[in-house]
Write a structure and sequence with these properties.
The complex is a heterodimer of chains A (110) and B (108). By secondary structure, chain A is mostly beta strands. In chain A, 0% of the residues lie in helices and 61% in strands. Chain B contains no helices and eleven strands. The chains are: A mainly beta (110), B mainly beta (108).
């Protein structure tokens, strides 16, 4: 267990509102990732980070931004949530080339 | 687009039978990994095979990798009802990309 926590675990919001999801790791791993999981699509990479203030886009980055001001925290922001962003969001860390996942955040955009 | 694609999308077998899942990918990789996900939970790492390896075993799991065909297979031998889950392949090359998964159901 890499000590990954996500907050909130569940959130319901309305279209057009900003939403920030937080991922926190208790270890000092350099690489962190945000994925979304939807039926029929598996996991798709949104953004990832390879260090403080170092981030890059993944497969489905449109509508999302990220920030990493501290090694232990990786934030995912939906500037203006849309119904298509209803999903389960997983944070993950790279631990010796293996990925450890957080418990997930279920986000519903009405 | 996603890097890996699993085949089949769904597989249903009887307890004791072997289950084989395949994964194809598109670009060069450093390694390929298989993960398992129980319903409503996060993914759990099963096994990693490096690009210079052809086969790897871990308990009842056997993974093969053919880099010339850009494909991998996961074999679960002597399946159990507890193996019921979704299985994902993931390719690693600076970032980690997952396929859509195979849903395995093992009937007791």
């Amino acid at each position: 267990d890499a000590g990954i926590t996500q907050s909130p675990r569940h959130k319901v919001t309305e279209t057009g509102t900003p939403v920030t999801l937080r991922c926190h790791q208790t270890e000092n791993h350099r690489y962190m990732y945000w994925y979304r999981q939807d039926p029929g699509h598996g996991l798709r990479l949104i953004h990832y980070s390879y260090g403080v203030k170092d981030t890059d886009k993944g497969e489905v980055s449109d509508g999302y931004s990220v920030s990493r001001s501290k090694t232990e925290d990786f934030l995912l922001t939906l500037e203006s949530a849309t119904s298509s962003q209803t999903s389960v969001y997983f944070c993950a860390i790279n631990k010796d080339s293996k990925i450890d996942f957080g418990p997930g955040t279920r986000l519903t955009v009405l | 687009s996603q890097q890996g694609e699993e085949d089949p999308q769904a597989l249903s077998i009887q307890e004791g039978e072997n289950a084989t899942m395949n994964c194809s990918y598109k670009t060069s990789i450093n390694n390929l990994q298989w993960y398992r996900q129980n319903s409503g939970r996060g993914l759990v790492h099963l096994i990693l095979i490096r690009s210079n390896e052809r086969e790897k075993h871990s308990g009842r799991l056997r993974v093969t990798l053919d880099t010339s065909k850009k494909s991998s297979s996961l074999l679960i031998t002597a399946s159990r009802a507890a193996d019921t889950a979704s299985y994902f392949c993931a390719t690693y090359n600076n970032d980690m990309r997952f396929g859509a998964g195979t849903r395995l159901t093992v009937k007791p």
